[in-house]
Fold this protein.
Amino acid sequence: MNKKTVQIFVLILIALMFIATIVISVVWRPSPDNTSASIITSEIFKITITSLSAL
């Protein structure tokens, strides 16, 4: 795989994570326990940042 393919794959992965984060926050907003949603959101961003720095 060349670098361009990897970059496109990472961009798609980040977009999917972003959409998943929005879906999770929208689905979990009505519940009183919002801490778990924010923990998952911060985990997703940590994973994204580490995968970006790995390139």
Notes: The chain has two helices and no strands. Helices lie at 3-28, 35-54.
